[in-house]
Amino acid sequence: MTELHPYIFEQLLYIQQAELEQRSRLAWMWYWRRDK
Q1: pLDDT, tens digit (0-9, with 9 covering 90-100), for 1-36
Q2: CA–CA separation, 5 vs 7, rounded Å?
Q3: Whole-structure pTM value
Q4: In angstroms, rounded to a whole number, what is the distance separating the alpha carbons of residues 25 and 15?
Q5: Which domain of life is it from (predicted)?
């Protein structure tokens, strides 16, 4: 198994975090709209 470069690993983590934030924001907006 090849070692991941720390920078690449950081980028992957950052991308994952951004995706998660976007998804939760979308879910929140949908939930909020449905509630009204």
Answers
A1: 577 688 988 999 999 999 999 999 999 999 989 876
A2: 5
A3: 0.55
A4: 15
A5: Bacteria
